[in-house]
Automatic annotation (TrEMBL):
Keyword Repeat recorded: no
Matches recorded under Pfam families: AAA_16, GerE, TPR_MalT, WHD_MalT
HTH luxR-type domain mapped to chain residues: 867-932
Protein name (Swiss-Prot/TrEMBL): LuxR C-terminal-related transcriptional regulator
Coiled-coil region(s): none
Entries under SMART domains matching the protein: HTH_LUXR
Amino acid sequence: MPTRPSRSSTPAAPAAPVPDAPRQAAGIIARDRLLGRMMAARQLRCIVVTGPAGSGKSTLVAAWRQALVPLDSDVAWFALAAADNEPARFLDGLLASVAQVDPALVREAAQLAGTSVDADPDAVERLAISLVRGIASHPRDLALVFDDLHHLGHPAIHEALQWLLDYAPPNLHLVLVSRGTVRLSLDRLRSQSQVLELDLRDLRFTLAETGEFLKAQLGDVDARTVRTLHELSDGWVAGLRLFTVDWKKKQLEAGRSAPGEPFARVPVRDAQAFLQYFEQEVLSRLAPDELDLLVRVAPCTRFCASLCVALLDAPDAIGQAATLLARLEDDDLFVVPVESRSPETWYRLHPLLRETLRERFATLDAATRQVVHARAFAWFRARGLLEDAVRHAVQAGESAQAVVLIDQCAPSLVVRGERNELIALLRQLPPQEVLRSFRMRLWTSRSQMFQRDLDACQHTLDGLARDVPESDAALRFYVATLQAALAVQRDDIDAALAMLPQLQVAPPDADPLAVGGRNNILSWLYSQRGEYEKARSVQSEGAPLVVDGMPLLGTAAGSLQGRSLVGMSYALEGRMTQAERIYRAVLVEAEQGGKACVDAYHLTVGLLADVLYELNDTRQARALLENRLEVIERIAIPDAVLRAFRLLASANWQDGNRQEAFAHLERLEDYAVKHKVDRLLAHSLAEQVHYRLLLGETAAAEAALARLVAIEARHAASTSSAPREISELAQRARIRMAVAHGDLDAAAAQLADIVAQCETRGRERIVAHLLVKSAVIEARLGRYESARQKLLEALRRGHRLGLLRSLVDADPIAHELIDELAKTEQLGPVLAFYVEHLQATRAQPDTTTGNTGSTGPRTAAGKRGAMPATLEAFSEREIDVLRLLAQSMPNKKIARALGLSPETVKWYLSRIYGKLRVSGRDEAVARVRDFGWDVGGTGGATHSG
């Protein structure tokens, strides 16, 4: 073992042991992300690594040292201790560390080592110059590591280190490892891009690294547990080690050899595992008043200097508080700055240190704790920081004040589109406090509707309807609008119509949110009933609404949503040009309104895409939708969801992407089943009948039709518009089935009936579509004059309404009929020009086998044999995705292999994970193996048992 050089004139042999670099502990994961940065910086003058104890600084630098060995570089390691904070001892240790590389490097410097620093102020500089000269003569690069630099505070030592930095030759690279800020001047090196600085933010484990570490320590750990521990530890390596040691100990005590209790259920059950660590590494370094400050801010999720002095009731001490927080941050004592738009610097405590301090806070007497929370409540309320204010009001025993505060700010939050903020505020209240307040129950029902927790919303509204005072007309009206809004979200037209008498006349003192919501509900209802002019007049005749001084534009009750519903009334009527103009104007304003207008924006996106597809702008329609589907599903009314998925199915079918088309219909079906919306389910099944028949899959089409007819029968007793629409869809599907079976006369008779029904309801777009279908059937029956008349009528209507896809999608041979008519009929210049537009919609010939897309046609029986019982829950397409998943294919490759979009693959994976009850890819593959399934080959899934 090398020893320190003596202070004699000949430094032949060092005289005291020199600590070496730490060895890498077993189970430590590779920090490739950080090692890559350090390797790229190995030619820089300086590398600085700072972070609190246990953050992996020394382990990282040790791994870097090992990576340098093959690169013909030398490393001298000086592991410092508190005793080295004495100039002579430090200089001896420095020379001994460098001598381990080559004693010749320190020969000249050792001659100067015996000089007293106090007697000769220039001695340190002369020694540094001698040392760098020796290093400059070395043929290889030398990295000089100072580990635990925070132990050094003597000015002469800092001066020696500064000379080394300033005079370092090109082959000398200093690595400074410290728990706190390095007290050296690095500005010049920074300006020259000659320094790499890594701190706690860099040293924290990423989520993936946390998973690797836990797997190395404990074996397989589920994804939710990994995320929970990552958030609790904040990526702090020592914290994770304490967790794993504690868990292993508890497992051993319980007589279990493998993890049994998920971490997610036992995090920080007590702070004892961390108390000793923080006592030694953090709290022992604080003065009593500094520790008292941290204990009092521990209940706060974030804090700043002015909050600290408010909690202490010491307004004159703000300067001292700001200085203290900055020092704690600089010294990496687990006080972390957070982003804020405030001019003050905001901080948070590391989660585990906060738990430790909260334990101390809990030992304070109840009166003191209540005072601290009351001061925090007043401070946060005065600055409009509502969530913090409400939380501390509750903790201070002032729940009633919290209720008043929420009720005051809730309307503005809704109008600004900050509904998540409102939900967070309501969650701060004790449940009994919510139940005691009628107003809080109102806001709760709105929040439940925002989150699409519709059953809970129904329960809340039922209670409000029972408890609303008979004499309070405004509140009764408010509750009625919420009940009607819930009916719209559930697509329950009958329930919405039942509310119509209560909605038609608003009390003079009605809440503007209730009035705006009522207006939009009426527009939707009248449109569903075919009363399009009434739907539009509700919006045009209503006065502008204002909430807390802000115009009510966004939210489901805003005027933008109302205008979008006006556009929908035109689209339902078939007047596409007017609908498009309205939608585009609404989108422009909604984009400018930002978060406040997110509801109107996504509703309008879904409705505009439907119009664009109708006008044959398929590419733009798909571009509008494909990245917004999840949001539309989550927040838009069912009408927008219906149009989005139906449009994407049609567009993909038109492009020859058969499987993608069916995937969108399956997603629509899933949505309809989940939210119990039979009208949307009927649309999905009707489209499935249509496409299955086009593929010649008669048995599959009949199965879909049978389900559709069952839904029709379930609603036979109702006379509202939704059951009529379901009946219409079932009737159109039966017509398609009759045509497929060659029963053209029955199909023609049924078509005549349904055309008359749609005429009565003002559904002119559907009428034009059905007239083309009827013309095709008439032509196939040889009744050519009737076919000509029907097709001409369809063209006249289509031209007047601005329709394209409705006509050409009516039947596969619609284009042929239109071409023939154009050749034989004198159409006139206007109608002839319209026919040219229809002819331009013809899709390019499909070059895929059998005109069915890249995956080929699917027969009713399928291409696979009978599935084993354990796989019956999975569709054929899910099995395909699972097979490729087992081959470790990423989503994009799975999408290419199956002819799907990556977004659709994500949807299939979510279904697979749900059926397997897992949270990710690795767990899914492991579960499949546990079941003994073989999905890795190319021949489909089989059962190995």
